[in-house]
Amino acid sequence: MTDSTASRGKFISFEGIDGAGKSTHIAFVAATLEAKGKRVVSSREPGGTALGEKLRDMLLHEKMHLETEALLMFASRREHIAQVIEPALERGDWVISDRFTDASFAYQGGGRGLDRAKMEALEQWVHPHLQPDLTLLFDVPLDVARARLDATRTLDKFEQEKADFFAACRNEYLRRAAQFPERIVVIDSTKSIAETQATLVGILEKLG
Ligand SMILES: Nc1ncnc2c1ncn2[C@@H]1O[C@H](COP(=O)(O)OP(=O)(O)OP(=O)(O)O)[C@@H](O)[C@H]1O
Ligand SMILES: Cc1cn([C@H]2C[C@H](O)[C@@H](COP(=O)(O)O)O2)c(=O)[nH]c1=O
């Protein structure tokens, strides 16, 4: 039975250029919150729903027009919000998403050069009243991210992009962090995993 008196949960997004180390810390943050008695839903974008995962497969592996790419990112997001994020928050669960709309601004906007006004219009259409309560931006120099990627995996469409693409993505992430300092916390992800975990514990304490 659903508890209609449950207070709304909180929404945390994880961001950073590919290889910055964000995915490494998701399970740790989920476990830290669960130890504090929160129910946690972990998800990702693009993806997070059956339809979203199909869109993810296309987005990460097929060439397409830049605007198609942006629209499909937001289509995946619309489904994710409707099926996963909003129901969880209303139940009082906490939601952790591996990427959200800041990634569209960074990758389609910064990296690929799509007009920011178009992204803002999509954001207003798809989630006019929803923003993460906290965004953890894992920031590293490009060479560190590249070395981590090269050491670990077969690269997808985005991960095969060149250094100037990731430099533009990183700049846009940092620009947004300066624009929304109350929401976006920049984490120096060159630090060891243990040091980063200690930083995360401190940040989560403040969130309640
Ligand atoms: N602080 C760290 N120090 C050293 N290695 C790290 C650190 N954080 C992550 N790594 C390693 O770097 C690799 C990439 O990390 P991870 O998959 O978390 O990156 P990511 O930012 O989520 O990348 P993507 O967005 O492409 O999935 C992993 O092998 C991980 O173990
Ligand atoms: C949400 C979102 C994602 N992307 C890109 C960023 C990454 O390269 C991939 C997702 O892969 P990850 O390793 O699981 O982070 O998609 C994007 O370009 N725009 C977006 O809105």
From TrEMBL:
SUPFAM superfamilies: P-loop containing nucleoside triphosphate hydrolases. Its EC number is 2.7.4.9. Keywords: ATP-binding, Kinase, Nucleotide biosynthesis, Nucleotide-binding, Transferase. HAMAP family: Thymidylate_kinase (MF_00165). ATP binds at residues 16-23. Belongs to the thymidylate kinase family. This is Thymidylate kinase. Coiled coil: none annotated. Residues 14-198 form the Thymidylate kinase-like domain. Pfam families: Thymidylate_kin (PF02223). It is an enzyme of class 2 (transferase). InterPro entries: P-loop_NTPase, Thymidylate_kin-like_dom, Thymidylate_kinase. One of its GO terms (biological process) is dUDP biosynthetic process. CDD domains: TMPK (cd01672). It comes from Massilia violaceinigra. Phosphorylation of dTMP to form dTDP in both de novo and salvage pathways of dTTP synthesis. It catalyses: dTMP + ATP = dTDP + ADP. GO terms for cellular component: cytosol. One of its GO terms (molecular function) is dTMP kinase activity.
